[in-house]
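3.2 Worked example (two chains)
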Amino acid sequence: MSFAFPDWRSAIWQSAACALAMLGSVVQTAWADGGAAADEIVVTVSKAQTPILDIAGNTARISGERIRITNPAHIHELGNQAAGVWLTRGSGQETLPAIRSPVLTGPGACGAFLVLENGIPMRPTGFCNINQMFELPTELGRSVEMIRGPSNALYGSNGLHGTINILLPDPGSDPGWGAGVTIGPDNFYRARLDWDGTAARNGVAAGGLVDHYDGFRDATGYRQQKGYVRLDRAIDNGTVELTLSAQNLEQDTGGFIIGRDTYKDRAIRTTNPNPEAFRDADSQRLSLRWRPTERTDGITPDLRLYLRRSDMTFLQHFIPGQPREDNGQVSGGMMLTLQRAWPAIELTAGLDAEVMDAFIRQFQAAPLNGDSTFLNATLPAGQHYDFDVDSIMAAPYAQVTVPVGASLKVIAGLRVEYLRYDYDNRMLAGNTRDDGTACGFGGCRYNRPADRSDSFTNAAPNIGLLYRLDAVSTLYATLARGFRAPQATEMYRLQNGQTVADLDSVELDSLEIGIHRITDRYRVEATAFSMHKRNDIFQDTDRNNISNGKSRHIGIELQADWRTATGFYAGIAGTWARHRYDFTTAARGETIVSGNDIDTAPRTLGSLRLGWDRGRGRVELEGVHQGAYKLDAANDHRYGGHDLLNLRAQWRIDDAWQLTGRINNLTDRLYADRADYAFGDYRYFPGRTREFFLDIAYRH
């Protein structure tokens, strides 16, 4: 096993400890001012409450206070507040995430990001939904934690480019009950309710919300409901936590508007070329966590058992022929973590295991009669796919922290993960029509393999250095490997000319160097990274699948928060990154050249918040920057980027009542939430013009 870093010589890593110490002396002198403050606590990196200054790696935490003042209608409003993160907004509640990556779509996108709810993956390994974040009750969360780049040995497949963990409120954290109502443009209405108390010796935290929105474009509204309930009970040898969360979405989906710069046309940008598009989805997740009191031998176990179910039907309006997809899964598993601390060594070890039963159906209702004879012949009406997949996953892991001297720690870990698929094709095998007749031009695009089983075994090591500068500052360097086993949809929903044997696990090697500093006045995290990815799977502009891709990713990130005793505060999240192809191929749709920018990958992202919070009032101005990006592999087409301003104000009427107003896109800028170039034309999801939201909340 070897790491590959074309942009960094191995000598950098060999001398990292010395470099950290030297840099530490410089930074210590420059930042001599600032008193110590209580360190911020996060849980995602280590699966336990850990001060940020004790973490060898990056992490971003969006607090419950930030969630409440933002009160996001869509999760992308929170993603703007973290460096290296771009949660692109699609139609309705759809989201395509980018975390130290381009925006990924189609094959290769699912599984590139690990999404957790209270530390438990919300989807089974190998069967994700790239838009899955609408299933989470983020609006009701107590915080959101994000890790950029591959995580450590404690997490496995799907955490390739980043991890997002939504943490729900703990019973007893905010006793009482609360309610709120939000109104906004285009008949946006939100009602929410939460309660924190006790019932029959159980600590209880529960919450729910209902959203209604007609959409600012034709036929693009949605209705959604989300909720959770958690029961905590103390038992003789520890505590038991039972959590249930559920979601339902009924969405009328908007398609791309077509034509160069059409997002600037106030008449066209409110139209919907695909009024027939829709997405209906529901999901449920049940988990049981047992945390016993610490044993006399010093081992602290943490056991989590969980069940998940999801079901979704949607129209693939973005594909010629507009086939309908039905998919669903039932899965369950366990996560066992053991932690042991000796005087000089800390050990975390565990086992993750899960099983899954899933299905996918794809059906095209009518023949395609467009201008392209090739597409008309190769995208037939009828059933395209109909298959079931069972899977089993098991992954032991261990990570150890060893001090070297008074100020330096070494962290090393290893995870080995096994994944097996059992695939049952319920149709004719091959790339024929569903009745067995052949398509023209060498066969139908959709190819169905015969029944088969496949397995993947991946090993992911990580090693890091953590150097303590002083009571408020640490430097770190990490070398980690992330991996992503091929998803079931990539293994068995193939295209003409593609074979299962071409697909290997995607691997990403990452080197990162950074600094944390937390004082009573400000918090700063700065990082630099270099990553190399192999065996990538993605789609070109004509939605042809391409396998065995390679890419390079380098960048720097800065996030900081500053607050004064007078109530003034500021926050910044800034990113410069370069995402490039590292191979050359003449694909069916376009030619990919090594060194070109990957499409939909802005080099700059950022946000800046300036605010004042004093007495009963609060006002905040937020600027959001998105840089220009290429729209195709040839780098012949581009989107110029945009800058937006948002204004928020709160008034605490009394101890129970609070009024909040928000104006998004204060300057009424015409922009695109996402730009694309495909099938020979520009395509856009237009962004929203100026919007005003008013929220009134009560807490007792």
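3.2.1 Second chain
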Amino acid sequence: MIKNILEFFRVIGELRFIVPLLTYKWPEPDDSASLAHTFQESVDKFGEKDFIYFEDQTWTYSQTNEAANILANKLVKEGIVHSDRVVLLMENRPEFVISILALNKIGAIGVLINTSLTGTPLIHCINASDSKKCIVGAELASSIEDVLEEINVKDKTNLYWVADGKSYSCPEWASDLNNLLNKSETDTPKEIENVTAKDTAFYIFTSGTTGVPKAALFPNTKIVAASTNITRGGYRMNENDCMYNCLPLYHSTGLMLGLCACVHVGASTFIRRKFSASSFWKEAQKFNTTAFVYVGELCRYLSFQEPCEEEKNNPISKMVGNGLRPDLWDCFRNRFGVDRICEIYGASEGNGMFMNLLNKDQTIGMTNVDLTLLEYDVAEDKLKTDENGKYIEVKEHQPGLALVKIGPNAVYNGYTDKKASEEKVISNVFEDGDRWFNTGDLIKTMDVGFSLGRKHYQFVDRVGDTFRWKSENVSTNEVAEILNTFDQVNMANVFGVKVPQSEGRAGMVAFNCAINDFKWNEFSEFVSNKLPSYAQPVFIRIIEELETTGTFKLKKNDLREEAYHLDKVSDDNIFVKKPGENSYVPLDKDFYEVIMNGSAGF
């Protein structure tokens, strides 16, 4: 009884943070609202305050602003105008932040490329964006060099190379950006006056459910509104906070929930190129990071670490992110002492967001969008209908496919590809002409106790042709299309399989081949060269015949169920790429036991 009363007053206390969000007025389309405008406000208030901590560097808000202005003015002189696209391929570092700020100041669109991409996917992302310039970090220049003859940004004057320490020298095919800058042009470019809320700020590529990566549109209004919601309702942070951010800034989680949130309130941020579980708590203590932006996989890695002194009395009191599975929640709440865990849910291209505003356990929280959960036939990979052909809403606490109604309060920006955008929309769900965004995810309602009368939800799983691995969405169709180009693969059936003590699903492919003559070394090299690490199949099953549906779709459900389990696929051959190795080897019983006891290290 006392516990319930305390919970009642705790939730009531949350209202002082929630009410302002409910009354928050989104920027009008023609308002002067953008990341650049928000950043300028923070510079005016906190100019001499530390903004970025990175390796042995410290950048104040004013220093970052001057560098962004210098680059912005250079781009204007080079002919970059409002709505022009500029590719940015660079690891997390201050120059990445400076580049996106510079582009936003002049109303140009930053085409943010996944740093893992090489070969065909990289070519597609660059060419599909129709960009005029490409800013590439020295650390990733080899990826551009490998595809130089196939991308549409070829001229040396349009390829800007950005130094990264003293380990690299500028290649002949690029221009050293630092040598081109006029360091005296530190004034804010006048072009910022023409930047509005409705303008597109970034293209952020997502695998989607089918085909090659697609560019999701991120208008300024989405960035400004998301930053407001996340800082006030999520972190509850201000200028005195410092955020630990080791997520890639080319993704919406690291960029919007991380960097943009800090800019919004004038907070500091420690950024890291890549996540390191062994360094995490030492760095959290060193930089006094009070907030943490996460994805579930990072949390799982941290939970696997042996206890250390630095994790005790650590400064992190609040964290916002997505993918924190229920079994990890208690670890962060109890072992690491994180008081506030705000799980959010949403899609880069989507029109709605869920947020755990009330700091409840194991929930993605609540939403203010018009939502429906419909019964889904996972085996047939389609929505169920009743005898009248109508979609069926699920019962309380049962998983269903989440659809978000498209309307004035839930605008669907979609992709640059209009056809791909429409493929994510389901119409006439309940009445003629209604339009709903298909999230592609199963979620369910859950009982969280006293919650101000609002429904709370929990993520269940992804459906269709996409699975998540290494914090990335993997399109099975895209991977299969690439694998099918190997001369000994007739038809690849790609799917995700669960691995004990690993977040998401590992990639697995089944195909038929003459196993005794199969060129394993060449195939392993092909996979490494053609696919980013997160999309490379971990398991291979050589199968006698691939089954298809009546409409010739490859059947996946039995394969997913049987996976790599030796007791279920004894008549076939299973191969595995072990962690840290580049070639596939037969899966034997000893390593299978290592996998099943959760110590394989995937």
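3.3 Remarks
The domain at 466-596 is CATH 3.30.300.30 (GMP Synthetase; Chain A, domain 3).
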